[in-house]
């Protein structure tokens, strides 16, 4: 029998919820950080496996696709399962990935290892960001902000970890060390992660074709899903080509090469700040404000080429990134997934895959067509504002 609402209220916003936050922080820092700092160890992998730059990049693409696409799909499939076996399976995948890297001697073996790591990381990401909001009511925004500081800090700290390891051992052994840490954290999480009594999903709906059709037939869901793709696409454009964008608008390459780190650094602070602000003024309002700031940064970058305006734009990007990363999970869970939090989070995780694949290609095509970045950045800013509006409207609980 499902626990009562009073029983839920007695456990939310308590110590156990903060334990979930702490474990989630560490898991995201290690697993997200391991995958998305590929550029740091790419040359070492290429040397160890005798790969060209193109084939090495293909390995990263497979890992990224597995993280967002397969990880999101797995999140949908496992929505009705107990969390322990899901996390144990993720731990087994990380262990298999690290183990395969010790014995593989081909590009295929390396690709399979990164696919396993991506699936494990994506599954853990979806489970974590869907679970944390279920343990909080009053401090939901703050808890989510502190959790996703993990992946923001991971991409800041893990490069130093990789460099330290690679200075002392081979890239294969370095992955073994990181893999052992990841497995240990997943094992700890498998004992701690559980859904709270009386949670919103206590009357879980079947995740089946009828459930999927009900989402697709809901204009609010379609608006929110498309809106998140549009509101999120600018980040993938910057992550793929910020150095080229900045040098084309007149910024020195030596300055441009270090610029993206500022976005990540600001976003770490913004994740916590956005969560705290959301607890006071509302998560939808906070995320909309962050996305609007990011769009304004795109407009500024398009029309004003100076170091000062560049740094101003980078700060707005960091604020926008922090707001999106911290707040979209609890917003979409409240709007569409109280009965299936993990499944709906998996569905919206696919937005990252779509945004990351389509937006950089579209911007590059437009840049080639017009011969510069000014028009593409303005167009991207307009689409980002449109995305903010669609997501805000689509997740409005008062819209019938």
Please characterize this protein's 3D structure.
The protein has helices spanning 5-11, 15-35, 38-49, 53-77, 83-103, 107-131, 140-166, 171-192, 209-216, 219-248, 253-256, 259-281, 283-303, 307-336, 341-370, 374-394. The two termini are 31 Å apart. The protein folds into 2 domains: 11-198, Growth Hormone, Chain: A, CATH 1.20.1250; 209-394, Up-down Bundle (Growth Hormone, Chain: A). The protein is an all-alpha fold and 400 residues long.
Q: How are the SSEs ordered, and which strands pair?
A:
Layout: H1 5-11, H2 15-35, H3 38-49, H4 53-77, H5 83-103, H6 107-131, H7 140-166, H8 171-192, H9 209-216, H10 219-248, H11 253-256, H12 259-281, H13 283-303, H14 307-336, H15 341-370, H16 374-394
Give the key terms.
Growth Hormone, Chain: A, 16 helices, 400 residues, globular, mainly alpha
Summarize, please:
This protein is mainly α. The protein has helices at residues 5-11, 15-35, 38-49, 53-77, 83-103, 107-131, 140-166, 171-192, 209-216, 219-248, 253-256, 259-281, 283-303, 307-336, 341-370, 374-394. The chain has two domains: 11-198, MFS general substrate transporter like domains (Growth Hormone, Chain: A); 209-394, MFS general substrate transporter like domains (Growth Hormone, Chain: A, Up-down Bundle).
The radius of gyration computed from the alpha-carbon positions, rounded to a whole number of angstroms, is 21 Å
Shape: globular
The CATH architecture category of the largest domain equals Up-down Bundle
Beta-sheet strand percentage? Answer: under 5%
* CATH classification, class level of the largest domain: Mainly Alpha
Number of helices: 16
Derived from helix and strand composition plus strand pairing, the structural class reads mainly alpha
N- to C-terminal separation? 31 Å
CATH superfamily of the largest domain: MFS general substrate transporter like domains
As residue ranges, the low-confidence spans are none
CATH domain fold name of the largest domain = Growth Hormone, Chain: A
């Amino acid at each position: 029998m499902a626990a009562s609402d009073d029983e839920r209220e007695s456990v939310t916003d308590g110590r156990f919820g903060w334990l979930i936050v702490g474990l989630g922080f560490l898991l995201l820092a290690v697993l997200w950080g391991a995958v998305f700092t590929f550029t740091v160890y790419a040359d070492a992998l290429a040397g160890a496996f005798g790969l060209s730059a193109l084939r090495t990049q293909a390995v990263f693409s497979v890992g990224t696709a597995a993280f967002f696409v397969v990880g999101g799909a797995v999140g949908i499939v496992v929505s009705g399962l107990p969390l322990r076996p899901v996390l144990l399976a993720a731990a087994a995948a990380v262990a298999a990935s690290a183990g395969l890297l010790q014995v593989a001697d081909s590009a295929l073996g390396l690709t399979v290892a990164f696919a396993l790591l991506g699936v494990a990381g994506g599954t853990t990401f979806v489970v974590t960001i869907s679970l944390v909001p279920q343990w909080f009511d009053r401090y939901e925004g703050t808890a989510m902000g502190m959790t996703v500081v993990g992946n923001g800090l991971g991409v800041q700290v893990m490069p130093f970890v990789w460099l330290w390891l690679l200075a002392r051992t081979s890239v294969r052994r370095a992955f073994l060390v990181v893999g052992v840490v990841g497995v240990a954290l997943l094992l700890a999480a498998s004992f701690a992660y559980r859904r709270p009594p009386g949670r919103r999903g206590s009357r879980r709906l079947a995740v089946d074709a009828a459930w999927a059709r009900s989402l697709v037939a809901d204009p609010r869901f379609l608006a929110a899903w498309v809106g998140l793709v549009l509101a999120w696409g600018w980040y993938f454009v910057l992550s793929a080509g910020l150095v080229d964008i900045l040098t084309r608008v007149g910024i020195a390459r030596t300055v441009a090469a270090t610029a993206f780190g500022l976005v990540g650094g600001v976003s770490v602070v913004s994740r916590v700040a956005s969560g705290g602000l959301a607890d006071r003024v509302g998560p939808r309002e906070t995320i909309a404000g962050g996305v609007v700031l990011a769009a304004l940064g795109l407009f500024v970058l398009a029309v004003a080429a100076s170091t000062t305006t560049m740094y101003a734009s980078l700060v707005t990007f960091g604020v926008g990134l922090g707001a999106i990363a911290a707040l979209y999970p609890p917003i979409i869970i409240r709007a569409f997934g109280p009965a299936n939090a993990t499944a709906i989070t998996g569905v919206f995780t696919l937005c990252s895959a779509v945004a990351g694949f389509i937006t950089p290609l579209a911007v590059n095509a437009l840049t080639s067509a017009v011969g510069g970045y000014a028009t593409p950045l303005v167009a991207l800013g307009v689409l980002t504002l449109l995305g903010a509006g669609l997501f805000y409207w689509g997740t409005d609980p008062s819209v019938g």
